[in-house]
Amino acid sequence: MRRLKINQWIFVTVLGFLLILLGPGTGPLTDTDAEAAWQPKKPITFVIMAGKGGGADRIARLMQKIVQQHGWSPQPLIPVNKPGGAGAEALRFLKDHHGDSHVIMVTLNSFFTTPLRANLGLSYRDFTPVARMAMDTFILWVNSNSPIENVNEYVKAVKSKHGTWKMGGTGKGQEDSLVTGMLQEAYGIKTTYVPYKGGGKVASELIGGHVDSTVNNPSEQISWFEAGRSRPLAAFTPERLPQFPKVPTFQELGKGGMVYYMQRSINAPGGIPNAARQWYVELFTKLSKSEEWQTYCKKKALHCTGELGFLTGRDLGKFFATEDAKHKKLLKAMGEI
Amino acid sequence: MEVFGNLLYGFSIAITPLNLAMAILGVVLGTAIGAMPGLGSVNGVAILLPITFAVPPTAGIIFLSAIYYGAMYGGAISSITLNIPGASTAVATTFDGYPMAKKGRAAQALVGAAVSSFIGGTVSIILFTLFAPPLAEFALRFGPAETFTLMLLAYATFAGLGGGNPLKTIIATLIGLILSTVGLDIISGRPRMIFGDIAGFYHGVNFLVLAIGLYGIGEILFSAEERLVAGDRVAVKVRLRDILSTIKEMVKYKRAFTIGSLLGFFVGMLPAAGATPASFMSYSVVKRFSKHPEAFGTGTIEGVIAPETANNAASTGAMLPMLTLGIPGSPTTAVMLGALVVWGLLPGPMLFIEHREFVWGLIASLYIANVLAVLINLFAIPLFTMILWLPFTILAPLIIVVCAVGGYAPTFSVFDMWLAFIFGLAGYVFRKLDYPLAPMVLALVLGNGTEVSLRQSLIMSHGSISIFFGFEGGVFSHPIAAALMWTSVALYAIPVVGAIIRHFRRRVALAKT
Fold first, then answer.
1. How far is CA B152 from CA B149, B456, B481, in A?
2. A179 and A153, same structural domain?
3. How many domains are there within chain B?
4. Averaged pLDDT, groups of 10, chain B, 513 residues long
5. ipTM of the complex
6. Residues in B touching A143 (Cβ below 8 Å)
């Protein structure tokens, strides 16, 4: 008698675990029904093409929060990290879910660079563009202990080191290394590029004195900057960032082409019904206008308004095409492809 | 004393009804999540994050850290009763916890785990409270060279994890290291070792998948062959007296508690490590300094104390760089860091100044969460030991199911579930051939960080290994790396030198006769 009870207890518990785990799972469900007003019928898998705790991850979870708090979706967004192969795993996942309207993905620039560098049998054209939410910016940073105050002094210091100047950044072929490549090209300097797993780590390595400079996003350095431990030298933007009014742009310093952004956009798998695409476009339009999202952008020096802000429809497709071509050129110049 | 003023202020925040309720809920959920194989604190914190959107940030972080804490306690439960690590941090707990359960001392092992967790956690929070800012500056000094030399030191402790045969330990370690190279090569940014183009290998081999396969499924196969009929689990009734007598017995092991707490805190605090390696290192170091090293692996409570003290100490340690520097000391704190941003807080050096109520409320709630967790766990022990009443024929299929879920859960990938089964078969073969499994698992945990920090250091020094002895470009600039390097050189040399000395002594003795 006693045994039976315990068996039942265990059975119920295990069953419970299974239900909890498999409940929000995703099957390859395809929508065949009407083009009319589409609504998600089960939780939406929100793929993040980077690891937990990084910039893309934070944005995705912030979006999840905003959508949930406003009750804009009848079904929850479930963030799932697929960081493998610099986004290759996420891209493959999206391609394998062709036609599945319950999957969306938040992307970085690896959306372009990863398919260009590795032969994955896919490109950005295989997906349904939903919306561009923001453009992240880049700044050249040094430790505030350093005597370097401006770009001229920086170039001199790097040259005096004969190639042993340590530049910290994210993995090779990713955004930081492309920005570094631009910088080296423009000023005819050479650095030793030390790759790290994520931008947050890069930022603290600069403060710990393990690397000599970085090209972090403002969001990654801002806390150190406010604590007076890092110094911005110049921004890779066409105009000065409102959060850093004293920091010049490379454009002002006479280097016209030195502009680089990281896109934060939402994509769905290819072949989803138009009604579903429309529903997502509406959702993210609302999201981009929300106060929470705009506050986040302001704090982190992201562009979320105007020409560099929200984008959808045909313009977004055009934007992807120019970005892809631009990255192809950059990677070629670096000898990566 | 400013610290005590701050701490009192923190307690005044932590004991508000909402914050206290969140701490209790977090500990209970955390214990349950930790006890489920495959689901560790990382998954728990990530999955339950949306709950915190409904409450203020302070209540939110209290909830998440209570989950983190609870999971550290809960992980030990299935390690001890089923030999399946409930969380990656509890793998080392299986080494002695499960043999204890086999001997009919499951309750003692569970009490040991709960009490050790409590002590490790408490010591660690006290250190955190007193020294957070200066320790954060210390953690900042850990660059690639320092990280690599720390890893070397960790490998030196492997000898304690293996059986009698050093060659087999080395082979097991190397297999783990090879598995750690699967996935993305971060230096070149390209996928590698993906066996042609198998998408499931893109994210590398998850450490939990290997652990669940080797320990969970491998164990079932092994026992199925050996004692399908007899059944080797000894079920016992748990009385309050047993709990008290176990606590009394544990007083003897002050040294294990001290080593576990301090080692755990420091290893947890350093950016590259975290609670899992801390628990392994503590196990080997305690074994080395124990009065009865031969009892390790056969079911000694000292072998439960060591990892369980360290993993809780490390989980608090890992929060230190997260709060003070904005860099996570473990995967779970990386998710928490993301949560801070979602709540609109900026992690990093300004947090202590700008959001005093948040930081001190959290620190005070850690003390409370720890007390809650130990009480909940002690009272629930009779419930946990019920698992042992089940006959093997019913338990085995259930465990296989749990392992399947556990293989799937860390990455939400069905491919990894099959991988866990393959590792299960491999684990069975390794056990038959008497290869130690622990070095393989730990090598997989540390492999990636070791490789990356080695390559980063060599890029910095332009290929010269003198950087690990403190020199970069001919200037002595890495004193911490140098100290760690010489310590590990000494640790590797001691057995060799010892053997040579014994050899000569024997010759002298022979010459005399």
1. 5, 15, 11
2. yes
3. 1
4. 83 91 92 79 81 87 91 87 81 90 87 94 92 82 90 77 77 92 80 83 84 84 67 61 85 92 90 80 89 89 94 90 77 80 76 82 90 89 75 80 82 87 94 87 85 93 93 89 91 81 85 74
5. 0.80
6. none
